Every structure is written in structure tokens, then in C-alpha cells.
Amino acid sequence: MTLPALARIRQIARAGDTLRAWRMFEETGLGASSAPDALSLKGRLLKDRGLRSLGGDRASLLEQAQEAYLQAAGGRPATYPLINAATIAFLNDRPKEARDIAGRILDILASGAHEPETRYWLGATEAEALLLLDDPQASREALERAMQAAPEAWEDHAVTLRQFRQILERLGRSPDLFDHLQPPPSLYFYGIIGLPDDEAEVRAKLESVLDEIRPGAVFGALAAGADILVAEMALARGARLHVVLPTAIARFREISVAQYDSQWGERFDRLIEEADVVEVLGGNAGLSEAAILNGARVAMGLALRHARSLATRALALHVSRPTDDPALAETEWRAQDLPVCKVNLENWLPARGGALDPASNLAIVASAEPLPAIAGHEPVAQVHGEGGEILGFADLVAAMSYAEAALRLAPEVRLGLDSRAVALEEALEASGELAVLLARAAPPGSICASWPQVAALDILAPRYRFESAGEIVTSLGDVPIGLFCRLTAA
């Protein structure tokens, strides 16, 4: 039982959900374990908590983290816990201790008498020790060699680069010293419907942009025209395709693809087969302007999360005419000071299709218990049902702002959060059915949200951090979820 628990807690910690990981660590009894793996995980969790704290709490937690890693190493030539102990000492204003441990690590590595580890982590450990000894050039060369040994271990690279940036900041050196080693960026793409029969012009422009960006993963829908072409060209360059559709595949294909030309439908089908991930947003409202905006926000949020997980950049690529007003999605992307690459098509009219379904966006907060009225956080609709209380808000940020305020007032409350496009005549009881089921599944003191819909907060309100938490079994089927726990100072 211990190894699966360790792996699960480590995964949650790596995703950034520090409080939940620490609670699980204590609840499983691992805090009392003297096993090296458990002590190393304890050090990791204490370090994460310490770096989020201030003053004396920070120093105390980091000291405990350093001690846990040193205990994990014991008298063994275990470079992993030792390098973590060294870096924590450095970040905790103990530079001499850090240098002493770093020197010991380099001696162990030079002797070859170290515990087994991958070539990447041995090289990264050497690079980190050299950086702690303030030798950035040697550190850079060592990390380059390590990455050459594992060129596609991007998540491992991201862990290393994040740690190195912390050290560089404390050393007072440029944080971009290792930027050339960043994983390839994430790209959100969006374009106009339809393309000229001769795609040569747009292909030439996209080739130039994509060859410059060299994305590792691309996120967007697959409407006929620019979307499909960008996805095809990105796949041909080795990028991973993450498709986000605002409604059911068949409905999207009918309205946004097939009605323009049968060859678009064939290209759409091939991309669905080749995509790494296909996310289909729920709801009964069909394909509407509201659903399309939701899909764009989710795709943008997922692109940002992917970039953050790999410690790399996120960009947007928009294909449009020079006279077009910026799409709302582009405006929201720019509002976070994120870069946008524009590809303009001169003297060309986009294709026009049939009318979209009428719908509006609604964000829903639910609880099995009565919910408080909170000044400044009034819902646009509210119902009391046998299954619980349901509040409807005009947008996801307003709903999340209310939910966070409710958590402050009632720290043990269980909340469900859902966001969707709803038909104009749809009753709140029907729209809120999933949110009620999510509330029943939420742990005390948390918000359980529909996934990936809640990833839209990464673009709309990045201060709110949900973490993907698997699936729950409900009467509506298996539902992917994200969890939010309100972090305390420690």
C-alpha cells in the first residue's frame, strides 16, 4: 500500500496542490515512516510549504525539509536527497551548508560510487551542485549534456529548470541563463472558417510562423479552414495535438466542418484519430456562440497549464483578416500579457454557414447544504431542491469568487462547480444537476469542479488553481473532475 500512496501523493505535489498532498501524507501515516522514500517525500512537501510561507514559518519548514532529506540519505551515497538538502539550505540562507553538501555530491559523482540513477538525473544533479557553488558556466554545460541524454524528458527538465531559476534569483544572476534549454512552447490556435481553394498563400505564412515557434503541443478546435490547416501542419512538425470541441463531435462536425465541403470532413476525421487528446465539453445547448467561447477559454487554459507544467512559454496563433476586430478570446489572452502571433489573409472573405443554436453561458455553484447569501456575490438565479441548493452566475469568475468566499465562511463546506452553455429555456435544476453531483463528491473544505471546463480559470482568473483529480462515478456517467482547496499560510 505504501508505494502506490507515495506515487499518488508525489503526483499531487508535483501538480502544485501542496495542501492536499500534505493532508494525504499525514492521513496515510507516512509522516512516522523512516523509509528513505517516505523521508524524501516528506522533505519535498515541507519544502513546498516552506516556499509558500513567510518569516519564521518559512525558515522552520525549510529547516525541517532539509533535515528530512539528510535523514533519507543517511550515510548512503544517495545524490537525490543530498542535492535537495543542499538547495534547501541555500534557499534558507545557509550558503556554507549548501556549498559543503554540494562539494560532497561532486566527490560522490566523481568517484562513481553513487546509488543507481538515470543519466539525466545524475547530470542534472551535477549541474545543480555546480550552480550552488556559483559556477554557472560549468553548470550550464553539465545540464546541456544531461538533456542530450534524455532529450524528450520534458517534465523532468521542467522540474530542474524551476529549481535552477530559484537558485539564480538568490545568487543575483540572470534568470534566463538556461532559457535556451526550455522545452518547446505550447500554442493555442484559432482561425477563420474556410480557406481559398488554393491554400498556398496561407500555407507559406503558417510555415514561417510554425517553423519559428516550433511548438511542442497545440490546443484548439478543428473548424473547417484555418483551424484544421494549423493542426495538420503542427502535427507534421512533431507537435502533439490537443483538440477541445465546444459540443458533441457529431454536432460540431456537422455545423463547423462538413457543411463547407466534404474534404474538410475527411481532414477533420483524420485529425480526431491522430490527436493525443480530444476534450468534448458537456451540455445540451448544441453549438452556440456561447459554447464556442467556452471552448476557446478551455483550450487557452489547457495551453497555459501545459506550458506551466513544463516550465516553458505559451503563445497564441490567430489567423484572420487585417480588418477583423480581435476575437474576445484573443483579447482575454492579451489581458494576461501573453504573446500573440497573427497571420493575416489579404482580400479574402470567410465562408458563411448556417445559424448557430441560441444559448447563453452559465456557471453553477451547488451544495447539499444551504448556502449563505454573500454581499457582492449575488447569483443571477437560485433554486432550492431536494438534492441541494443551486446558484447560477453569469460567468465562471463570479461563480468561483462566490465559492471561495463561501469556503472562508464555512471551511468544511463541500461545493460543486460547473460551467456550460445552456439553452435559453433550460431550467436551473436541469443545468445544475452535474454541479449537485460534484458537490456530493467534494471532500470537506473543497470545490469539486467539472474538468476540463474549470481550466478556463487559468486564462480568466489565474489566481484560482484547480488540479485534475481523475474521475468520479455518477448517475450521468464517469465525470472527470478538478479540485480546489483553500490554502492556509503553511
Please state how the strands of the largest beta sheet are arranged side by side: 8-9-7-10-11-13-12
Strand-residue proportion = 15-25%
| Average pLDDT number | 90
Spatial separation of the terminal alpha carbons: 28 Å
User: Gyration radius, to the nearest Å?
Assistant: 25 Å
Level of helix content?
A: 40-55%
Largest sheet: 7 strands, mixed
**Number of discrete helical segments:** 19
Structural class: alpha/beta
Morphology: globular
Low-confidence stretches: none
| Number of strand elements | 13
Q: How would you sum up this structure, described in words?
A:
The chain is an alpha/beta fold and 490 residues long. It contains 19 helices and 13 strands. The longest helix is centred in the middle third of the chain and has 21 residues, at 289-309. The radius of gyration is 25 Å and the shape is globular. The model has no long low-confidence stretch (mean pLDDT 90).
Task: Give me the secondary-structure topology.
Layout lengths: L1 H13 L3 H10 L8 H16 L3 H19 L5 H13 L3 H17 L7 H14 L3 H14 L4 H18 L14 E6 L8 H14 L3 E4 L5 H11 L3 E6 L3 H10 L3 H13 L2 E4 L8 H21 L4 E7 L7 H8 L4 E5 L14 E9 L13 E5 L2 E6 L2 H14 L4 E10 L4 H4 L1 H9 L4 E5 L6 H4 L6 E8 L2 E9 L5
Parallel strand pairs: 1-2, 1-5, 2-3, 3-4, 5-6, 10-11
Antiparallel strand pairs: 7-9, 7-10, 8-9, 11-13, 12-13
Helix pairs in contact: 1-2, 1-3, 2-3, 3-4, 3-5, 4-5, 5-6, 5-7, 6-7, 7-8, 7-9, 10-11, 11-13, 12-13
